[in-house]
Description:
This protein has helices spanning about 5-10, 15-65, and strands at about 85-95, 110-120, 125-135. By secondary structure, it is α+β, with helices and mostly antiparallel strands. It has one domain (about 15-135). It has a 3-stranded antiparallel beta sheet.
Amino acid sequence: xxxxxxxxxxxxxxxxxLEVIVALAVVGLALPLVLGGLSMAIKxxxxxxxxxxxxxxxxxxxxxxxxxxxxxxxxxYSLITPPSGYSIQVSTAPAVTYTYASPLSTTTEETVQLVxxxxxxxxxxxxVSRYKVRE
Length: 135
């Protein structure tokens, strides 16, 4: 008359201890791989961000120099203020070396110079160059 519960209990499948151990082992092996990949992705993103900041600072400094009067020495150019953790250095070099014959003056007025901006940041440095013409 009543239901026989012993039959339904025997028919139900459950997890054995071996299946649980295998599942935990798979998770234990996969978890470090996933976390390692995530860590590498974060580091790559940080490096890309820092490279972007370095490039933007170098470009901004070069644009600032472009608007300033021509200076024979790099110290004649004013620097922009970089954010904390970054530094900017400017160097100049004549773009063309002029050679004059003996009777002419030994002093030359360079008209084109190569301006190089070196930016050092949290995870590296970058150098960007551009020509500046005396007007």
